[in-house]
Amino acid sequence: MLSTRNSRRSLAAMAGIGLAGLSLSLHAQDDTIKVGVLHSLSGTMAISETTLKDTMLMLIDEQNAKGGLLGKQLEAVVVDPASDWPLFAEKARELIEQEGVVATFGAWTSVSRKSVLPVFEELDSLLFYPVQYEGEESSKNVFYTGAAPNQQAIPAVDYLSNEIGVERWVLAGTDYVYPRTTNKILEAYLKANGVSEEDIMINYTPFGHADWQSIVADIKRFGSEGKKTAVVSTVNGDANVPFYKELGNQGISAEDIPVVAFSVGEEELSGFDTTPLVGHLAAWNYFMSVDAEVNDDFIDSWIEFTGDEDRVTNDPMEAHYIGFNMWVKAVEKAGSTDAAAVQDAIIGVSVPNLSGGYSAMMPNHHITKPVLIGEIQDDGQFEIVWETPGLVAGDAWSDFLDSSKDIISDWRAPLSCGNYNVTTHVCSGQNL
Amino acid sequence: MSLSLHALQRLIRAASLLTMLAAVCSFHTASADVQTGIDELDGLFTRFVEGKGAQRTEALDALAALGRDDTRELLTGILEGDLMLHKETDTIVWATAQGREYAMQSLDRQNDLGSERKRKLSRLKVTNRLRGHLRSLIASLGLRSDDATERLAAIDALMETPEALPDATLQELLGSETDKKVSAALLSLQARKLALSPQPEQRLQALSTLGEDLSNDSRSLVQTLAENDSDEAVKTLAGKIARDQAAKVRLYAKAETVFFGLSLGSVLVLAAIGLAISFGVMGVINMAHGELIMLGAYCTWAMQQLMPNNLGLSLLLSIPVAFLFTGMVGILIERSVIRFLYGRPLETLLATFGISLILQQLVRTFISSQNVPVANPAFMSGVLEVNSVLSLTLNRLYILAFCLIVFALLLILLKRSRFGLEVRAVSQNRSMARAMGVPSSRIDSLTFGLGAGIAGIAGVALSQLTNVGPNLGQAYIVDSFMVVVFGGVGNLWGTLISGMTLGIANKLMEPWAGAILAKILVLVFLIMFIQKRPRGLFPQRGRAVEAH
């Protein structure tokens, strides 16, 4: 019932914004700065992306309450790409060409990002992408505020091997690009650290896989051969519930074989019966349970904004928080919203993150973040059990893959290249 | 990366367990009612909160050694985060969540300290290593507990480091133990101690006990003896036992695969059996079948919302509720749409596909586009442990049994009742049945309603295994048609056999082909089979077939 109310309200809000957009573009074009919000509000991804749309509206409201930007008010232009990847590109074009937005915050899945990438490059506009992803990309027009593999997957593996003494690894994932690339990087990383072939088990399952009996039995057998075993899970969305249930039913507790997941956060847990998940791990750059004054303030204003005591915050929301504040600071620094000026100004900009520290924009358009490991609690929150001692800078091109280990990205002059090969000294076509 | 580290950890753990056990035992022999002052406790907590690494472990050991009556409670409080640090006064308090506030009590639970917002409190930081240490501390405190399960847990905590338990204590525990399971656990702990003994006779004695035990530690212990033992007799015996054990483990692994296959099969049969009636008996291609399953699953959720404190009963009640509700929906669909489309299969297909979309969207609009949480009652979780390598999950066992019961009841209904007779009569020869006074139109809607109701029951079962959401039905519609077509349209036995066959085939292939390829292979096999035998495994024969 709750979300019915929400969706109805957001529909009304969308209609309102649409109307406002129409009338404003006629009368008050120069008085506002337009910011695009490109998140699916319908279709399969709506579950995750609607929250990010609300986050952006909240951040923009707050900025306007502080007096706007460069003396003007900010105006959000919300469009719905409906979880339809080609539609993302069309909507991005609409935002830039027809609405005249100066920066866009949006996209979730890698395929939607790949779909809009050429549009932002062609029209030279800015995109802030807030979700953890597989890396191997660095575009002049995109700022990656989510985690690269070295800011999530690799620290998680380090934690398991150093703190828990894990020696055997199950890499389980859903069969698509993010798990496949992440697992390729992890496998290379593990082997580079002396883990032998027979101590790594890799397993892929289709989207929405529901019958985990034999896979869990395999994992159990694999883990019972004397060495401490852990599962590194890039299993996506829905399939997680039956997976964790089956683990619980077959008597595998988090202490026997811990599962560390990269796609399970507070928002996903709010739809689960969390009993079978308690004690398993997740790696993110932010948890709602982070102990910091700035986080408490953020949660309070989020709850006030949504009017719902039970709403949770999560990692991609923090990424938007950081990305938006970086953009604001860069615009103030450049004194203009012009894409080229902001691209120059934003590198090196540092803003508070929600875990009590600061995050900075690196020359490769990725940001620095702390990496946290949290244990799932029965209330759907995470208890932080470990964090990296300092900040980790996002690495666009993994050092552990043969195809990308010689490649760096640096968007500062004179290099200004997202794909520069340090051995051949060639700046090749941008992205793989 | 960390083999030596791991060994070191084990050593440290064994040593600290040893000191701690000594402390616990000595306090038991002395008087347990010595209440140590609250000041000392505060001091230990300060050491725990402010200390680093080993200091924190020592503080915990000291806390356990205090011998307070509430030692267990305090240790559990640290472990589960019920003890928190009040940041302003820098004191440790018991905190209980009440809405967004926490009610606070002093450490000895004597004084209420009012309530505070969450941001004023922080949990005591516990790393994974400390967590493990806390767990074994708590478990060892249970060695002399009155509760057999706690004693068992305490012994289990010691299995990895049997050397930590002194011989005398073990003998004493063995002498006084009355519970069978706990005794067995103690004996196997003793065998593990013996296996590490320097005398060959003792190791031989240990082997006979270890041979009975198929658990991992015991098997790896036998393996070690078989490979490295200095005594020839021990080495040969251990080698023989290790081979026996390996053969048994392989056999149980096969049994496990068959069980997995049967359980996947039972899910397929449950999902398909309603369709076997509407499609098999009536010849209606019902694309909304999956959505009827989904509605059944939502009935379970609704019942749980109505009676959140009684999960078991709500699940049992959802079975009739789901049957009646989806049955009614089925009758409604038949009366309002399908009735007008008999004999036009393509139009029925399109119409029911439309209905399936409408049903999904109704759920999205009126309930939620997100999945709803359906809890498992306690009796549905857990395992039936045959031995330490073969354990059957209870929820799957129940669903397998449930599937067979539903199948049997349905068979009786169709073969032995007046209604069943009329259903068969109408499906075999409609005009003759009408001539004999069977109200064929009413029988049509009741039959369709029966198929729908059974889909609802399948939904109740599926809600215990998988996600309940608007898309639930789509995952099962293809599988259901596959089972019915493979089994032979219009034959209930065929549906049962084909569901189970497909389940087992899938699970046999999964280990070497992977989950994705196994599904593809099954589908390819099915297509080839249908080419050869278009009417499925058990085709219907006789005039009824020609009439279709």
Summarize the structure.
The complex is a heterodimer of chains A (432) and B (548). Chain A has 432 residues and is an alpha/beta fold. In chain A, 39% of the residues lie in helices and 19% in strands.
Can you tell me about this structure?
The complex is a heterodimer of chains A (432) and B (548). With 432 residues, chain A is α/β, with parallel strands linked by helices. Chain A has helices spanning 2-27, 46-65, 85-99, 110-122, 153-164, 177-192, 213-222, 240-249, 266-269, 293-306, 315-334, 339-346, and strands at 32-38, 73-79, 103-106, 126-129, 142-144, 168-174, 200-205, 229-234, 259-261, 281-284, 350-352, 358-360, 368-369, 372-376, 382-387, 392-393, 407-410, 417-421, 426-427. In chain A, strand 17 and strand 18 (417-421) form a beta hairpin. In chain A, helix 3 runs parallel beside helix 4 and helix 11 packs across helix 12. Chain A is globular, with a radius of gyration of 22 Å. Chain B is mostly helical and 548 residues long. In chain B, 69% of the residues lie in helices and 6% in strands. Chain B is built from 21 helices and 7 strands. Chains A and B meet through helix 1, helix 5, strand 7, helix 7 and helix 8 of A and helix 1, helix 5, helix 11, helix 15 and helix 20 of B.
Salient structural properties:
A: 432 residues; alpha/beta; disordered N terminus; B: 548 residues; mainly alpha; 5-stranded antiparallel beta sheet; globular
